[in-house]
């Protein structure tokens, strides 16, 4: 196994571990809704939520980078250029994340000046990391971009997938630079902040996971390059054509012109369609060849990614971003329901699929066997669907009682929070959260021990 693949294993391992922190802090955050005064003065809800959200972002980034470093040598036929620097920055990245988490939990707040923003917290949701850590993230991204571009140049081989991946690296870095300025005008700040959040999560990340899915489908199911690249090009077209326009569904309430209401509502739900089409087309082609695969968990997690992305990001997003609905749903648990479903369906499932593929190949496993992955797959998906359903019930209660009937007043808010439908949804959310956490530990154990319960490839097969 070459150095690039070893780095891929390290990043994917770190991603799976970070998913554990993400889920534990998410479960902890849910308890705040059930127990009045929970951890008051010791660990506030906003800090727990902050760690939960940032753990999600880091888990996704590490998963993407792990998949790229794993697939890159196979796609180009050479060792990744500059891999030594990339390996060094991996440990710097991990150490920096550990320091930031310690600061979030034990320091929590800083002064409202430049020193506080550089050393403690920038105070902007999703990009709370202090500026020194943000500078480090930019350095890691620049190194990844160099690894990709220099490797393509050395191999003198620009495939359609690599072309899209190289293209998406530019806005991935450029858009993140929005995290550094601190405008004093709230509308200006929110306008550009939404560009960062939306264009990262719903544009550059969509293209990146699209490239990863394309590489995974070719390797797992033997899907033709022509099929995956056609769908990938459609994804690029939709991101360019609808991603920026769909950004308008975040503009509703920050003082932008009224025409963004209809534009944002119409175009915000189209982006997941090509990835669904790519996977469905690949499965159709594989079906004509009896759909032979020696890694069923990876196959099923790829299916979960396609449909989870389409339903969670597409249908769930469209359901609440129409202006007539968003007027009442904005900022409620309805939004939280969409957010959880979208991130899980679009990214987490895809990373888990690649993790199973990497575990199989790196350990020379002939066929992934056992029942643990089945329990993990069922538990995580049932738990997630149950949780987003529970959050939807609570969110609709908030929208109807607190917004539509209560007029978005304090009395309306308090009435919605004490409503039985809201509370039952919160209780169910925590219950399904327990299922998710338990299933995660089964997943982690299965990935850790995979190979000890399966027949390994002979040396001759392992090198083919």
Outline the structure in words.
Helix 2 crosses helix 7 (186-221), helix 3 runs antiparallel to helix 5 (131-155) and helix 11 (296-321) runs antiparallel to helix 13 (333-362). The protein is mostly helical and 464 residues long. The chain has 17 helices and no strands. The two termini are 12 Å apart. Helix content is 77%, strand content 0%.
- Kindly state the percentage of residues in helix: over 70%
Nearest-integer average pLDDT: 87
How many β-strand runs?
A: 0
CATH architecture of the largest domain: Up-down Bundle
Please trace the helix and strand order, writing H or E for each element.
Answer: HHHHHHHHHHHHHHHHH
Strand content: under 5%
CATH class bucket of the largest domain: Mainly Alpha
CATH homology-level superfamily of the largest domain = Cytochrome c oxidase-like, subunit I domain
The best one-word shape is globular
How many helices? The count is 17
Give the low-confidence spans. Answer: 457-464
**Class based on secondary structure composition and strand pairing:** mainly alpha
> What would the CATH topology of the largest domain be?
Cytochrome C Oxidase, Chain A
Q: What is the domain total for the residues? A: 2
Biggest sheet statistics: none
Give the distance, in angstroms, between the N- and C-terminal Cα atoms.
Answer: 12 Å
Radius of gyration based on Cα positions: 22 Å
Descriptive keywords:
464 residues; Cytochrome C Oxidase, Chain A; 17 helices; disordered C terminus
């Amino acid at each position: 196994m070459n150095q690039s693949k070893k780095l891929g294993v390290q990043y994917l391992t770190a991603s799976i571990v970070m998913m554990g922190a993400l889920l534990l802090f998410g479960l902890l955050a849910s308890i705040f809704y059930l127990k009045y005064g929970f951890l008051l003065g010791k660990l506030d809800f906003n800090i727990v939520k902050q760690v939960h959200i940032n753990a999600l972002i880091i888990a996704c980034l590490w998963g993407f980078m792990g998949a790229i470093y794993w697939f890159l040598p196979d796609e180009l036929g050479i060792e990744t250029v500059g891999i030594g620097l990339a390996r060094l920055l991996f440990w710097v990245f991990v150490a920096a994340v550990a320091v930031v988490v310690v600061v979030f939990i034990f320091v929590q707040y800083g002064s409202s000046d430049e020193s506080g923003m550089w050393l403690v917290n920038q105070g902007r949701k999703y990009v709370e990391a202090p500026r020194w850590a943000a500078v480090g993230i930019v350095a890691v991204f620049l190194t990844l971009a160099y690894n990709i571009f220099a490797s393509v140049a050395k191999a003198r081989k620009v495939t359609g997938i690599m072309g899209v991946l190289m293209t998406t690296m530019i806005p991935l870095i450029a858009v993140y630079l929005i995290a550094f300025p601190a405008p004093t005008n709230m509308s200006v700040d929110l306008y550009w902040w939404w560009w960062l959040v939306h264009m990262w999560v719903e544009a550059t990340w969509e293209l990146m996971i699209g490239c990863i899915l394309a590489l995974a489908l070719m390797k797992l199911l033997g899907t033709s390059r022509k099929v995956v690249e056609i769908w990938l090009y459609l994804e690029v077209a939709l991101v360019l054509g609808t991603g920026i326009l769909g950004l308008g569904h975040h503009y509703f309430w920050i003082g932008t012109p009224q025409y963004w209401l209809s534009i944002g509502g119409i175009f915000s739900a189209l982006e997941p369609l090509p990835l669904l089409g790519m996977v469905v087309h690949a499965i159709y082609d594989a079906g004509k060849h009896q759909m032979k695969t020696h890694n069923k968990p990876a196959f099923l997690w790829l299916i979960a990614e396609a449909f989870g992305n389409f339903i969670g990001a597409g249908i769930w997003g469209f359901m609440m971003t129409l202006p007539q609905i968003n007027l009442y749903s904005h900022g409620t648990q309805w939004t939280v329901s969409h957010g959880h479903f979208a991130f899980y369906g679009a990214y987490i499932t895809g990373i888990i699929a690649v993790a199973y593929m990497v575990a199989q190949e790196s350990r020379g496993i002939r066929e992934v066997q056992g029942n643990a992955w089945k329990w993990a797959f069922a538990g995580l998906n049932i738990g997630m669907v149950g949780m987003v359903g529970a959050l939807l019930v609570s969110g609709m209660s908030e929208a109807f009682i607190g917004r539509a009937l209560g007029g978005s007043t304090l009395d309306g808010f308090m009435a919605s929070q004490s409503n039985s439908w809201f509370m039952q949804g919160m209780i169910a959310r925590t219950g399904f959260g327990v299922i998710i956490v338990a299933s995660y530990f089964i997943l982690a154990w299965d990935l850790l021990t995979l190979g000890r319960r399966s027949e390994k490839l002979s040396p001759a097969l392992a090198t083919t």
